[in-house]
Give the backbone structure.
Amino acid sequence: MRIAAKSAGPGDADEESGRAKRADFTDVRANNLGFVLRQVRAEVRCSRADLAAKTGLNKATVSSLVAELIERRVLRESGSVIGNIGRPAVLLSVDTGYYASLGVEVNVDYMTLVAVDLAGNRLLSWRRAHDGANSTPGKSVSALAGLAKRAVDRMDSEGRQILGLAVAVPGMIDNDGVVQRAPMLGWSEFDLTGRLRQAMRDPKYAVTADNDANLGAVAEQRFGSWAGVSNMIYLTGEIGLGAGLIIDGELRRGATGFAGEIGNLLIEVDGRVGRVEDFAGVRAVLNELSESDEIAGTEVEAEVEDIVTRARAGEPRVLEALDRIGRSLGAGIALAVDLLNPEAVVLGGHYQALSPWIAPAAETELAARTHASGAGGAEIVVSALGHEAPALGAATGILNDIDAGLMPTPIGRLGPLFRNCYPARFRR
């Protein structure tokens, strides 16, 4: 598995005003802890001697770093192998038995919760119907807290320490976890993280929130078919349409966290001018092709499945509409490709089910509209993570911070002060 976190070398320094800024000892050590962890993760299992050879750090430094990572329950010794001179070498691997990271997505028609260990293995994967469109923010938070508490209790029964809880929301969320606008949910200026912490009785781990497209991109970069790609756009494909942007290997949120609102770009298709979301969003698909007069929030997935069934049966009206919607999506993607030049544009959410009909039309439109030949090298691909991607990305963002050197401390090892050692929000 390729690692999404940037693999900086040991002791990298920041730059300020064109000159290197000297890092203090704690910065260097944190960077080196993350560097060693990423190397072990990439190798799956390796010895201290292997780490010294591959990282360029001296053996004494590697031994000290490994000892700290084992103390923090991040690495563990996992067997031995006979070395070149017949002396057994102790192998190291990521400790998957102690920590858990929780990610939850709240959307118009469902909630999804994913729990992962330090290696990214799924410990839980739950999906529940939720009529977010017709629930008040308070009711949604209560449902969200209830689902999270169940997961926390399960992890606690297994002896796991919670690293953090992150929430994915289809809306504009600032760097303090306040939902400025989530029109599909009817939320505005809503302090999601504050209310959720209150509902969960002020837990001793961090509670954070981010846009669902951003977190979907995080999951795709680490676990998707294009894992490790440096430049990628992830499209949510839910009732609303947002984009998560991976640029030069990093998630980009913009100055205040609102980057990626691709659904608001204006396009012209078949003589009509409008927003990408109005022409190519899943709501547009349902408005045109659903046979129901009214669609409850919890019925969206069933309606999409019905449209897929009709498309497979070759219903002309459905095939024509999906082709037009795919072309509209391709027109919006072309604007984003001209601006950002990604290697891949990943279709997530409900676009996954609709992809056999909309993706070919989108690819054709992308090739016709981009200024660079061959669409600038960009490919339209379909997510293999489906609706789970934002929740998985929420949990994964916490792992990425640990890979970067923000290390947890097991409860009880160094006293209760360290229960709240994890940072208050994602690295910006």
